[in-house]
């Protein structure tokens, strides 16, 4: 599992462009990649859910299948040498074979929204009935705060399996946007 950030000018890369750059960096790094079968083999990878253009990220994830063991710090160094400015590998971990795939556990995204009165956090469901769009959530948050919000100053800081996990990374108020009802409410830390 590769944890990377997407900052500065890289936040304006589309999801597809960022994935292409990560794939190229993996190929250049000469890691023992496992490839798909078929006419046009590609490295076996899965990515974090897509971000809107202009939204930065501190904790995006990439799962890569390798056919040999490698040193995590060496992988990090090789990938960072091959990546353009703004895309940086923060951490590399080897996952147990029993660990569920990224698409199975990444259910919620936590966004930090910068504002004049300090940063607040916005939690969105990335799938299911409560799934919401970031644009709609920012509008609801702006209406609640009496301000206008756009993608400037918005950073996704993590992906989570459950809403309770966000309090590990969020300092300050956390608001949950329910995409089904269009309502936004402040969450309480139950721990």
Question: What can you tell me about this protein's structure?
Answer:
- With 191 residues, the chain is α+β, with helices and mostly antiparallel strands.
- It folds into two domains: 2-99, Pseudouridine synthase I, catalytic domain, N-terminal subdomain (Alpha-Beta Plaits, 2-Layer Sandwich), CATH 3.30.70; 107-186.
- It contains four helices and nine strands; from the N terminus they run βαββαβαββαβββ.
- The longest helix has 14 residues, at 15-28.
- It is elongated.
- The two termini are 28 Å apart.
- The beta-strand count equals 9
What is the rounded Rg? 18 Å
Please state the oligomeric state of the protein chains shown: single chain
Bulk shape = elongated
Q: Identify low-pLDDT runs.
A: none
Count of spatially separate domains: 2
The string of secondary-structure elements, in order, is EHEEHEHEEHEEE
Main pleated sheet: 9 strands, mixed
CATH topology of the largest domain: Alpha-Beta Plaits
Structural class: alpha+beta
Per CATH, the architecture of the largest domain is 2-Layer Sandwich
Number of helices: 4
């Amino acid at each position: 599992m590769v944890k990377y950030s997407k900052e500065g000018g890289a936040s304006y890369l589309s999801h597809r462009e960022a994935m292409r750059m990560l794939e190229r960096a993996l190929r250049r790094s000469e890691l023992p990649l496992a490839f798909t079968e078929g006419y046009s083999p590609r490295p076996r990878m899965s990515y974090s859910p897509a971000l809107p253009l202009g939204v930065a990220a501190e904790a995006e994830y990439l799962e890569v299948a390798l056919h040999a063991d490698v040193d995590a710090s060496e992988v990090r160094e090789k990938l960072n040498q091959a990546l353009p400015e703004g895309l940086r590998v923060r951490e590399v971990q080897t996952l147990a074979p029993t660990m569920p795939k990224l698409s199975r556990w990444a259910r919620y995204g936590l966004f930090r929204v910068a504002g004049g009165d300090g940063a607040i956090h916005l939690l969105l469901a990335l799938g299911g009935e409560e799934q919401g769009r970031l644009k709609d959530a920012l509008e609801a948050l702006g209406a609640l705060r009496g301000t206008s919000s756009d993608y400037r100053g918005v950073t996704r800081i993590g992906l989570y399996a459950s809403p309770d996990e966000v309090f590990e990374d969020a300092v300050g108020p956390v608001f949950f946007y329910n995409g089904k009802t269009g309502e936004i409410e402040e969450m309480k830390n139950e721990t």
